[in-house]
Amino acid sequence: xxxxxxxxxxxLLRTGDGRLLETEASHLARExxxxxxxxxxxxxxxxxxxxxxxxxxxxxIVEAVSVRRxxxxxxxxxxxxxxxxxxxxxxxFADERPSMRAAGAHATRLLVESGDLKDMQPAxxxxxxxxxxxxxxxxxxxxxxPSVSIRALIALAYIxxxxxxxxxxxxxxxxNFGVRLEVTKALGYIKGDAEAHRFLTRVMxxxxxxTQSGALRAAALESMARSQHQDAVRLLxxxxxxxxxxxxxxxxxxxxAEMGNDEARFALVEHLTGGEPDPExxxxxxxxxxxxxxxxxxxxxxxxxxxRDTRVRSAAALRAAGHNM
Length: 325
Prior knowledge:
This protein is an all-alpha fold. 74% of the residues lie in helices and 0% in strands. It contains 20 helices and no strands. α15 packs antiparallel against α16 and α17 packs antiparallel against α18. The radius of gyration is 23 Å and the shape is globular. The chain starts with a helix and ends with a helix. The model has no long low-confidence stretch (mean pLDDT 90).
């Protein structure tokens, strides 16, 4: 069956009555994890299988997704390790498979973010960190597997270890393009850190000289927003309007729309109505503003449906459809 048929079959299973037998859950998990590609449909199906509550099947899924490299598969693996608790995570640190070690580090970050640890007394929480810290330190020195090292460093940052941004910067400057990209994305998970923000700003400045650096600069912009950079909105607006690379411009626009807050909306409206940007920039601003929610958006789109430039009118018309105008 094609993807549509598979998706429809999964939806029928999810909405039906009753719980899958262990053998049924196991069969469905194998079918989902052996596919050539692993995306949203497979991930949603696996999450539903996990909810059936068969421990043996959960372990089968751990083994199956541990060999996959897709982000959705890695997230499921980290979630399963997290559900297994601290000892399950520590066991993953010592696994011979890099993907399992990386998932263990990822699960540590999820654990620190979880309500369970936040509700603990400081001494209890510190004891958990002490059990995880030695294994993470070992993983952070894994020179053969940068992905493992990067995830371990982020986990160490979450449990309060100092000097993590400096160590990530060393990896960045010593690595190939893939490592630099992964470090740039990872920095977005260190929230409110001034040194991480300075480093991301340097990435934007240094990489702009490289005509092949669009993906890196796009990742840096996303990380600025995720890590709560104080100038994120201003920088995103600047790169939306000024960068030569379409990937960077689109990432800036999408990230502003995903932020969706008053600061981001005001910054765009201010630039659009406070001056006279050229038609291409007007079209970009209208396109991004049209992705926002709120009462201010439809009147603004209606205004630019009558713009003198076809690019602006087209952007307004496209977004107006999403607001049922």
